[in-house]
Amino acid sequence: MSNSEKRSLLRFLVIYLTSTFLLFSMASWIFYNASKHHLLDKQRESLKYEAEQIQIKLRKLHQSNQKILYYPNSEGFHSAIYDLDKKYIFGTYPKEPSLGHLTDTDKLYLIVHVEPYYLGTAYLLVSKPINFTPIEILQKNIFLFMILSGIFFLILGYFLGKLFIKPMRDSMEQMNHFIQDTTHELNTPISTILTNIEMIETFEKCKQGSLELKRIEIASKTLSRIYDDLTYLNLNHNYHRKITNIDMRALLQERLTYFSAMLEAKKIKIDTKTDEKVMLSLDKNDAIRLLDNLISNAFKYNKQGGELYIELTQEMLVVKDSGIGIPTKDMHTITHRFKRANKSEGGFGIGLDIVNQVVSSYGYDLTINSVVNEGTEVIVKWEK
Question: Residue 226: how many CB atoms within 10 A of its CB?
Fold first, then answer.
């Protein structure tokens, strides 16, 4: 699975699972509150029954002629009786409760208005501790349900996400097949053209430095560079790197010579500043791709008669042009594959993607600074 497919799948799963979690959380919260109220209502029914039993016993005591009255008491319940002014008469509470301040949250209370006033009782207060066991069981069941649902929807979301990105994968595979076929077809004619140009120059069958020959050379080298880039993109994951010590100063001069005809055609002034010897341990083909793509972008998006500044030190490589620049809105995606900030120039939008891949492969740092209509500066740091 490619990085773009992974990013698309991850974004889909985040949106899908977040929305599903929020929906199920709301539904579970509503269900929990409804079920909790139902459980508490069932416990309140026992309070109503207890209050009725106490009133019956109060009536019997009121009608009896006993000199000693025994206040009714039931295990698991507390009760108290009050007069018309809500003043405490008697009860089974350890501490005298006030009808206006019943704030104990772990108990259920029921206040009943008593008529007629048996033994002077106008109000009856009955309470019992809340049985939290069924509520805790409810909480555990909902929590378990949320976990199992989360696992189910994660698996379902993964397969839905795979179906979601399948069209993109098919398109990418078709594009990769197209690139593979195109690079295969381009290889032979490009090699033939470049070989014959060298032979013409070697045997002086054509005047060296002629305009026609330069045009052919520029076009051929452009095709050759495109071919190399497309081959690299197609084989990057299976690309075998041979790490050696590369003299970057010598290689830079070699690549500038390679691009000299193109730079001259656009009349670009080159200013280079390099240390005596800059040695890096990396694959030579990667080093060539890094330099070629940076130099190619610098002249391709430069102005006619513009400037190109290249600085090579023991710590970094700087390539700066005086070209059209990159809009701010495109800066965070400019290294993505096939991303082109400017459609007026040719290209596939793969140059900075290749640069970014090479830089990432060796743990270097890539920084791009750009101002529209002023130019772009690319900095690759290998010494941190």
Answer: 19
Please give the structure tokens belonging to residue 82.
Answer: 């009050």
β-bridge partners, 375: 371
Q: Which pair of structure tokens corresponds to residue 23?
A: 């929906």
Report d(CA 325, CA 371) in Å as an integer: 5
Rounded Cα–Cα distance for residues 273 and 276 (Å): 10
- Half-sphere exposure (Cβ direction) of 21: Cα atoms closer than 13 Å: 12
| Strand ranges in 115-189 using DSSP code E only, listed in sequence order | 123-129
Instruction: Tell me the pLDDT tens digit for each residue of 181-237.
Output: 666 666 666 667 767 666 766 665 555 556 666 667 666 776 776 777 766 766 555
Q: Specify whether the CB–CB gap between 353 and 336 falls below 8 A.
A: yes
CATH of the domain at 263: 3.30.565.10
Question: Does the residue 30 lie in any domain?
Answer: yes
> Domain boundary at 131, 158, 190, which?
131
Task: Specify if 193 maps to a domain.
Answer: no
* Interstrand relation of 307-312 and 269-274 (parallel, antiparallel or unpaired): parallel
User: Which domain covers residue 63, as residue numbers?
Assistant: 3-131
Domain assignment of residue 162, yes or no: no
Residues 124 and 247 in one domain: no
Of 312, 336, 321, which is closest to residue 247 (Cα–Cα)?
A: 312
List C-alpha distances in Å: 382 to 254, 256, 277, 290, 357: 21, 21, 15, 13, 14
> Can you tell me whether residue 82 is helix, strand or coil?
strand
pLDDT digit string, tens, across residues 101-155: 887 888 999 999 988 887 888 999 999 999 999 999 999 999 999 899 889 988 8
Same domain, 251 and 375: yes
Last-in-domain residue among 74, 100, 131:
131
If one counts the domains in the chain, the total is 2
Close Cβ partners of 10 (under 8 Å, ≥ 6 residues apart):
none
Locate tokens 């007069």: which residue? 83
**C-alpha–C-alpha distance, residues 279 and 290, integer Å:** 15
321: which residues sit within 8 A by CB, 6+ positions away?
A: 297, 298, 299, 301, 302, 306, 307, 308, 309, 375, 376, 377
Beta pairing, strands 365-371 & 375-381: antiparallel
Residues 245 and 376 in one domain: yes
Measured distance CA(321)–CA(324) in Å, rounded:
9
In a domain, 138, yes or no: no
Q: What is the SS3 assignment for 84?
A: coil
